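Q: Convert this sequence to structure tokens.
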Amino acid sequence: MANISPVLFICPGCGGKGVRETRRCSNCKGRAVLGWLDGTLLFFGRSLDPSSMVIVGYRSFIRGAVNGVLVLYGLFGFLFFALAVVGFLPRTNTIALIFWSSLLLDLFAYRRLVRDTEEYAEIPLPRYGETSIAGVAPHDWTSAQSIEKKSQFDIARTFTPDAHKAVRRAVHIAERLHHAHVKPLHLFASLISTRAIGIIFGRLGVGSDQITNKLKHFLQLEEQGVPEIDETLYRVFFSAYAEATEKRRHRIDVTELLAVLAHDDETIVQILFDLDAAGEKMQNVIAWIALKENLRRQHISFRKKARSKPGGDVDRA
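A:
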């Protein structure tokens, strides 16, 4: 686990929930918990309120559907143009209109895809041997809010799509079970359904039924009510960011979230201990998965660079 943990500051207005009486907290504007690490103020910039999560899910679906329609229309436009060129279709103004309109829509679809990718970012890792210059650390919530914008960073942008889906699914689990708080236990229940975490437990010789049976017992002990985000969930996010930074990983994936849960949460540690999958066993398998992912990324990077390598002899004169 990371040797240095972020210093956390919890909003005094909402107690780290992000909402007050079903409305976004006016004191923190939804940034319920702030973290300070290596001279940077960290925050989680996506709303975790259950109602907001539903809207985000619908927006994501609609955005994907619109992009799909735009791409399909562009493909049809090029197909019509190609058929007209080879003589299968007459060269009419209608064909020309379809082609040029499809070209414009292709450009629009490309712009939408670029904008979507801008929502994500990689963790700004320092170069080897380089030390970050830490500013004056805040000492309370008020001083943390006064940190200048250029020293702030939204860690939600570094979450992979799978990690974001796991977080949304955790909120849905708590909502479906009518639990009063969305806790790390719900995130763990969400993570075990992902492919990467399934591989980890498979390597440890633990079946999904075994984990589910253990989880059911602890989930039944949770307080009933309207789900609110527990500040301990934000602690997991910030610790995962510190873990990824120390291990020099570019994004926060489901494996980083599991590594923090398996180390910091007492309930989950107990579950893993009962399954003989706690401690170094779990951390070693997670490190193995992360190593394979880094090697895959390096391979893709080398292949991209190889494409730009000159094919002929280099004139060294």
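The beta strands are 7-10, 19-20, 23-24, 33-37, 40-43, 152-154, 181-182, 228-229.
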